[in-house]
Amino acid sequence: MIRRTLLIGLLLLMLPALAHAQGPQNRPFGLGLALGEPTGITGKYWFSHKNTLQFAAGWGYYPHGGGALYCDYLYNVFPLVRARKVSFNLLLYMGIGGKIGFWNDDYYHHEHYDAGVSLGVRIPFGLTMVFPKAPFEVFLELVPGLAFIHPHPFWFDFDGCIGGRFYF
Fold first, then answer.
1. For the chain, which residues make up each domain, given as ranges?
2. What is the number of other CB atoms lying within 10 angstroms of the CB of residue 56?
3. How do residues 32-57 score in pLDDT, each as one tens digit?
4. Do 157 and 145 meet the contact criterion of CB atoms below 8 Å apart?
5. Is the peptide bond before 132 cis (omega within 30 degrees of 0)?
6. Could you say which of 3.10.20.600, 2.40.160.20, 3.30.428.70, 2.40.50.140 is the CATH number of the domain covering 22-167?
7. Would the pLDDT of 20 be above 60?
8. Beta strand pairing status for 136-148 and 89-109?
9. Fewer CB within 10 Å, N or C, the chain?
């Protein structure tokens, strides 16, 4: 009962944000490609001009090669450039999120090949170039993090990518 009440309350709190969702050309949902760590398909949903949720599925290389999934809450701190004299807004953002990695080492480690699943915490920082007159954005992101990987208790993780998204 308490769980249901909390869920309903959370949904009710999110309704105003969903009603005012903004992205390029007021389109809240975008899909695109990210090149870097991890490389793959990326998506973003704008709850408001300040709050977004980004997610991706792709292939990562560090510290062990394999598939990667992540989801981050992003906060647009402030615009560095506004679309008055130029055709884009350049926004600085930061956030927090989680990552799941699936890896399979190709090297011989402690007399056996390692494979497994890791969980991690991500702290993304980036720049996004939003074009008010076009339904797309371009972004650059650097993400320090901490991954919890077997056989190591934890591992410093660093992701970074450049990419773009088209908005629907």
1. 22-167
2. 25
3. 999 999 999 999 999 999 999 999 99
4. yes
5. no
6. 2.40.160.20
7. no
8. unpaired
9. N
| Per-residue pLDDT tens digits for 141-154 | 999 999 887 667 78
Residues 6+ positions from 82 with CB-CB distance below 8 Å: 89
Read off the amino acid at residue 56: A
Residue type, 30: G
- Smallest CA-to-CA distance from 150 within 121, 105, 117 is with 117
For residue 20 the two structure tokens come to: 């005012």
CA distance 32 to 163: 7
Q: Residue 14 above 70 pLDDT? A: no
